[in-house]
Amino acid sequence: MRSSFISLQSEFYKSRKTLAFWAAIILPILICGLIAFGFYSNSDKLLKLNYPGLALWGNYSGATLNVMGMLILPFYVMFMAFSVNNIEHKNDTWKTLFAQPLNKFSIYTAKYLYAVLLLLICLFLFAFLTITFGYLLQILVPKFTFNDYNPILLLTKFYSKLFLASLGILSVQFVFSLIWSDFLKPMGIGFVGIIAGIITANVGWKYAFLIPYSDPTLALRVTRVKGAKLEDFPVFTQEIWVSLAFALAMFIIGYFILAKRNIK
């Protein structure tokens, strides 16, 4: 446990100035801020539509979820997974890393958990800022109906699904970035996978959930049960289980790849 903590702390110090780290913070602020500004600048038009609280929250938070969940999040996950391992590739420090009095599993686990932590921070900020800016809009435009509905449970479940659905992509790309040190191979495969995932999910292919790159898109689709509240939808749907299965399998595969790697 102590070895893992030391390795995790080391990952933070090595990557705290990288684009992958700061993107986890800047992306939520930028996207949520722009959408909130758009709602504020178009408040007159929105007020004429007389949206009830739930519908207004749906339109407002849906703008963030659709832009981020379907497009930005998969690409960020792909880039972030590459960046975590690219620090060692770029500086040629794998040998130095394994020369420390820490076992390989602790080092590998810390790298993986750090990538998961960045993803968690990014999505937490998206959820937190979406809710915060929503209530800020209510203060700035008192005629809005944000106060008529509490979105915390609904958005928590949506962002939890997105987090779990993204673990499959993260794990696959993490292993690719272990195998290849160059930018083009893992990013190129990831780009093709994301496009294929979005297409198969949007055309309604019944086996799309088996492609980890399609799982974030599918996770945003909620079938409302008749007579139940909107927020009663299940989190652990088939695409989530597939994503978790890929995450576990690729985590194990990645460790064996690294353990057997010839570090020169």
Q: What's a concise summary of this model?
A:
This protein is mostly helical and 264 residues long. It contains 10 helices and no strands.
Characteristics:
75% helix; mainly alpha; globular; single chain
Structure commentary:
- This protein is mainly α.
- It has one domain (2-259).
- 75% of the residues lie in helices and 0% in strands.
- It is built from 10 helices and no strands.
- It has helices spanning 2-15, 19-41, 43-48, 53-91, 94-98, 104-140, 152-179, 184-202, 215-219, 238-259.
- Helix 6 packs antiparallel against helix 10.
- It is globular, with a radius of gyration of 20 Å.
Main sheet summary: none
Count of individual beta strands: 0
What's the number of domains?
1
Number of helices: 10
Q: Whole-number radius of gyration? A: 20 Å
How would you describe the shape? globular
> Would you tell me the structural class of the helices and strands?
mainly alpha
The secondary-structure element order is HHHHHHHHHH
N- to C-terminal separation? 28 Å
Ranges where pLDDT stays below 50 over 5 or more residues in a row are: none
Strand percent estimate: under 5%
Classify the helix fraction into a percent range: over 70%
Average of the residue pLDDT scores: 86
Tell me the quaternary state.
Answer: single chain
